[in-house]
C-alpha cells in the first residue's frame, strides 16, 4: 500500500491543523490520536469522520498517555503538537 502511518500527540488547534493536512493525503493514514482533553479529541475525531477515513486509536490517558501510543508498532512517525515544554521528553520517549 505504501502509506505512512501517523500518530498525533496533541490534537488541539495546532495539532488539528496538521491532522487536517494529513487527512487530505492519499499516501498517509492517521492511525492514532492522543490528547488530555476530551473536547479537543472530539473535534479531532470529527475531522477524521468528515474526511471519510477510518477511526484511529484514541488515547486520553493523561499527560503521559502518549507513551501507550508509542508502543504501537503500526506507527511509522509521530507528529508532536503539544505545548513546547513537553517536546523534549516526548521526542526522547
Please tell me how large the radius of gyration is: 12 Å
Order of helices and strands: EHEHEHEH
Shape: globular
The number of helical segments is 4
Task: Give the amount of beta strand, in percent.
Answer: 15-25%
Estimate the helix proportion, in percent: 25-40%
Q: What do the pLDDT scores average to?
A: 96
Mind summarizing the main beta sheet?
4 strands, parallel
Assign the structural class, choosing from mainly alpha, mainly beta, alpha/beta, alpha+beta, or little secondary structure: alpha/beta
Task: Quote the distance from N terminus to C terminus.
Answer: 28 Å
**Secondary structure tally: strands:** 4
Low-confidence stretches: none
**Strand order in the sheet with the most strands:** 3-2-1-4
Write the layout of secondary structure elements.
Elements: E1 4-9, H1 13-24, E2 28-34, H2 38-50, E3 57-59, H3 66-70, E4 77-80, H4 87-92
Parallel strand pairs: 1-2, 1-4, 2-3
Helix pairs in contact: 1-2
Structural write-up:
The protein has 93 residues and is α/β, with parallel strands linked by helices. The protein contains four helices and four strands; from the N terminus they run βαβαβαβα. A four-stranded parallel sheet has the order 3-2-1-4. Helix 1 links the parallel strand 1 and strand 2. The radius of gyration is 12 Å and the shape is globular. The mean pLDDT is 96.
Which keywords apply here?
single chain, 93 residues, alpha/beta, four-stranded parallel β-sheet, 4 helices, 4 strands, 39% helix
Task: Give a brief rundown of this model.
The chain has 93 residues and is an alpha/beta fold.
Amino acid at each position: 500500500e505504501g502509506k505512512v502511518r501517523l500518530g498525533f500527540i496533541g490534537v488541539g488547534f495546532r495539532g488539528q491543523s496538521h491532522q487536517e493536512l494529513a487527512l487530505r493525503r492519499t499516501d498517509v493514514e492517521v492511525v492514532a490520536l492522543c490528547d488530555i482533553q476530551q473536547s479537543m479529541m472530539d473535534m479531532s475525531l470529527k475531522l477524521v469522520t468528515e474526511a471519510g477515513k477510518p477511526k484511529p486509536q484514541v488515547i486520553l490517558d493523561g499527560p503521559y498517555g502518549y507513551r501507550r501510543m508509542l508502543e504501537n508498532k503500526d506507527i511509522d512517525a509521530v507528529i508532536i503538537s503539544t505545548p513546547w515544554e513537553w517536546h523534549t521528553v516526548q521526542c526522547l520517549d
